[in-house]
Specification:
- By secondary structure, this protein is of the alpha/beta class.
- The chain folds into four domains: 154 residues, Reverse transcriptase/Diguanylate cyclase domain (Alpha-Beta Plaits), CATH 3.30.70; 261 residues, TIM Barrel (Alpha-Beta Barrel), CATH 3.20.20; 136 residues, PAS domain (Beta-Lactamase); 155 residues, Reverse transcriptase/Diguanylate cyclase domain (Alpha-Beta Plaits, 2-Layer Sandwich).
- 46% of the residues lie in helices and 22% in strands.
- The strands form five sheets. Strands 6-7-9-10-11-12-13-14 form an eight-stranded mixed barrel, surrounded by four helices. Strands 2-3-1-4-5 form a five-stranded mixed beta sheet, with helices on both faces. It has a five-stranded antiparallel beta sheet with strand order 16-15-19-18-17, with helices on both faces.
- Helix 25 crosses helix 26.
- The two termini are 38 Å apart.
- 31% of the residues are buried.
């Protein structure tokens, strides 16, 4: 039987972890003469658009239906939901193609107008295969290979795809070496002002020149690194290289241009990208205004809180943030409402017939005007012809990029290109206009931090002062003391000295594997052992992790603190990171949450790491309390609807045996109580009946205050007789509440439905329970009725 953590909460299917564990066992135990196994990897085309068009609840229902169809068509071995709209089945080979076609028809018929199509990759497991993960990868590659092929819905894994898989494995296992040995090169494609055609910036693009596979295009290695969650290594390197190249330009006395850098959506989950960028900018001592951050529109569909916080941090820190691929999805205008951007970047392919179609021209003009009105610049990429450039001038687009203006080029080629550009426009009105524009804009941007009516000279002083203030804050003992006290207050320590007693501070020379400074508690010891500067950093970490980190987290802790990983991370441009884990303080006490942050820097050729670890257990408890308050209705203390409905759905999806019930209940004539005794009296009635509901159903059920006087209850694995007894206890009595001098009497009506006998899905059960409640209230007050088919 699967544990909760092995079950996908939406569909009730085994999740990726459970599938790999159990499918591996089936594969290991199979008889060599048994029928052949196949792995089938399913993907739904245009599912993101389906969510955007019909809403996430409709998308969830679609996935639930899909899960049921896959289980019905492939029942023999195992079916799993890996992630999003990706499902995997381990099945026998018989009639495999016909069964996939059947599934495709069912999915298409669910909503024929939605543009939803099934794709499937098939891998035939042979007697030599021993690793289920590799088999899944091969099925996924077969599926991905036909994503844009509308003639076929499935493909078998073959030798051609095997070559692609080998390349993918090579890329995954060699990205670190490619970064360290310079196989990754940064190319720059010019961005020009549309009105003048003059260069005003560049976009940084990665190219991989490999000694084994030769020149690898970004379209090959970037998707592979994104899927493997390794793209941060590439992007951190590009950030660092761009900053170093700009510094080199400035050292040569050349005028630097701003450079935009693309960040992948997975970057924001793997690392604090603000610190990655900001550290590189400070180490190279270049203005922040020379680095612009590009985020694709599709990235903004995922983990919006994380992205919004990081985007806000970039803009507050003085960096421009651009939305790339604007208009490629359904949610563009919503994103402009929810996020603040400095530039919208369009692809000219978004509107193919820009020169001849008046409708498309009107769309361009209105989008550009809208952007101007809300203070956002516009940039079109993919410009390849003179006609496209002329069109952008007519509709008022500010900047452009494409092969018409220049292909991606190396740093040295950029110098020649800029020389040619300067000579071509020297002394022309276009050059004078650009110089005036540059003077007005200045080298620093930070427009959002300045008042609109501030004089130009004051703006420059504000920008300079901003950087001076940062320097002052980093060197001021008073500022550092105030910051430390604020930090300690947030973590709920009584004083800074108490924080020091519960924190660990380590300085280590990673290059020489030596400790430089060790403060492991108020008594400078941990685990009843003292450590000295001459000892090995790695040996100390191995011992501390083994003896003080809980068993489930030791592997990831060892990896986080590993000397070799830290050195590799530094060379990849990652100088800061953090990690939370459970630390064993005393075998008689529960483990406590501990947070570790580190900073790595270079000193006289050696790599030095600074670690600070501190107890955050009280802070975590406070956050849990806030979360619990968010889950509960503030008046009654019961679950609110937002929390209860997903819990009930989860119970329904994983329900296997026995009977459950969904109950709708409300207070009879509650409006009369409010009108006669007042709303405060009504609140007291709600509090009292909520406590009663919790007494009757709460010990083995979910009790929710939906709205006003309505309640929703779900009870799992209950005997029908016991259920009727509890409903009778609620509905067959008259309740009385003493409020000041009044004694308020009332009854409760309820309707309920039995699962799975009378319904299965949440919406179906909810509708039927509501129908039973309406019937109970119609037939008389204080009644509890079970749903009956009409």
């Amino acid at each position: 039987m699967l544990r909760n953590e092995e079950i996908d909460q939406l569909t009730g299917l085994p999740n990726l972890y459970a599938f790999r564990k159990n499918a591996q066992k089936l594969m290991d135990d199979r008889n060599k003469k048994e029928r052949e196994f196949v792995i089938i990897y399913f993907d739904v085309q245009n599912f993101k658009n389906y969510n955007a068009r019909y809403g996430f609840e409709a998308g969830d229902r679609f996935l639930q239906n899909m899960a049921k169809h896959i289980e019905k068509i492939f029942p023999e071995l195992m079916v799993s939901r890996f992630s999003d709209d990706h499902f995997v089945a381990l099945a026998y080979y018989n009639s495999i193609e016909a069964r996939i076609d059947d599934l495709g028809r069912r999915i298409h018929s669910y909503n024929p107008d939605a543009g939803i199509e099934l794709r499937a990759g098939i891998y035939e497991i042979d007697s030599e295969d021993t690793d289920i993960s590799i088999a899944c990868d091969r099925a996924r590659i077969a599926c991905n290979s036909i994503k844009k092929n509308y003639d076929h819905i499935f493909r078998y894994y073959d030798n051609e795809l095997g070559t692609q898989l080998d390349l993918a494995h090579y890329i995954i296992h060699n990205i670190s070496e490619a970064v360290l040995k310079g196989y990754i090169q940064v190319y720059y494609q010019p961005v020009v002002r549309v009105i003048t055609g003059r260069v005003c910036g560049f976009e940084a693009l990665a190219r991989w020149v490999d000694p084994v596979h030769g020149f690898l295009m970004p379209g090959v290695f970037i998707p592979i690194l994104e899927d493997a969650h390794l793209i941060y290594k590439l992007d951190a390197y590009v950030v660092r290289q761009v900053c170093e190249d700009i510094r080199d330009f400035m050292d040569q006395g050349l005028k630097p241009h701003p450079v935009s850098i693309n960040l992948s959506r997975t970057d924001f989950h793997q690392r604090d990208m603000y610190h990655v960028v900001n550290d590189a900018v400070h180490q190279c001592n270049i203005p922040k205004s020379l680095i612009h951050i590009e985020v694709t529109e599709s990235a903004l569909d995922d983990s919006q809180d994380v992205l919004r916080g990081t985007i806000d941090k970039f803009r507050r820190g003085g960096y421009q943030v651009w939305m790339d691929d604007f208009g490629s999805g359904y949610s563009s205008l919503n994103l402009l409402k929810d996020y603040e951007f400095d530039v919208l970047k369009f692809d000219m392919k978004f509107l193919q017939n820009f020169g001849s179609n008046p409708r498309e021209t009107a769309i361009w003009e209105n989008v550009i005007n809208m952007a101007e009105e809300i203070g956002i610049q516009t940039l079109a990429e993919g410009v390849e012809t003179l006609e496209a450039w002329d069109f952008l001038k007519r509709v008022g687009c500010e900047k452009a990029q494409g092969y018409f203006f220049g292909r991606p080029m190396t740093k040295l080629e950029c110098i020649d290109y800029l020389d040619e550009d300067r000579n071509k426009y020297k002394g022309t009105p276009a050059q004078r206009a650009e110089e005036a524009d540059d003077e007005a804009l200045g080298l620093g941007r930070s427009v959002i931090e300045l008042k609109k009516d501030a004089p130009e000279e004051e703006e420059e002083e504000d920008r300079t002062g901003f950087e001076d203030d940062e320097l002052f804050m980093s060197e001021s003992p008073v500022y550092m003391t105030l910051a430390a006290r604020g930090f300690v207050s947030l973590l709920e320590y009584n004083s800074y000295s108490q924080f020091q007693k519960h924190s660990f501070f380590i300085v280590a020379n990673l290059s020489k594997d030596k400790l430089l400074r060790v403060h492991l508690s108020s008594k400078r010891k941990i685990l009843d052992k003292s450590y000295h500067k001459a000892e090995s950093y790695q040996a100390m970490i191995d011992e501390i992790v083994t003896k003080s980190v809980i068993a489930d987290e030791q592997s990831i802790a060892n990896d986080f603190f590993s000397k070799d990983r830290l050195i590799l991370a530094y060379h990849s441009g990652i100088t800061f990171d953090d990690f939370e884990f459970h630390r064993i303080v005393d075998i008689k006490m529960a483990p406590r949450w501990t947070h570790t942050i580190y900073q790595i820097m270079e000193d006289k050729g050696d790599i030095i790491a600074y670690f600070l670890s501190f107890d955050i257990d009280e802070y975590k408890r406070s956050k849990d309390l806030v979360r619990q308050m968010a889950e509960r209705d503030s008046l009654t203390g019961l679950y609110n609807r937002h929390t209860a409905v997903p819990l009930i759905r989860n119970r329904l999806y994983r329900h296997q045996n026995g009977k459950s019930a969904l109950i709708m209940a409300d207070i009879d004539d509650f409006k009369v109580i409010n009108d006669k005794y007042g709303s405060f009296a009504g609140d007291e009635v709600l509090r009292r009946i909520s406590a009663r509901l919790d007494d009757i159903f709460g010990r083995d059920g979910i009790v929710c205050h939906i709205d006003q006087d309505e309640f929703l209850i779900f009870v799992e694995n209950i005997e029908i007789g016991n259920l009727k007894k509890r409903v009778s206890e609620l509905c067959d009595n008259t309740f009385e509440v003493a409020y000041h001098r009044d004694r308020i009497q009332f009854t409760v009506s309820a309707g309920y439905v039995i699962h799975p006998d009378q319904g299965r899905g949440y919406h179906d059960l909810y509708r039927k329970a509501d129908t039973a409640l309406c019937k109970a209230k119609t037939e008389g007050k204080g009644m509890g009725l079970m749903y009956e088919e009409q």
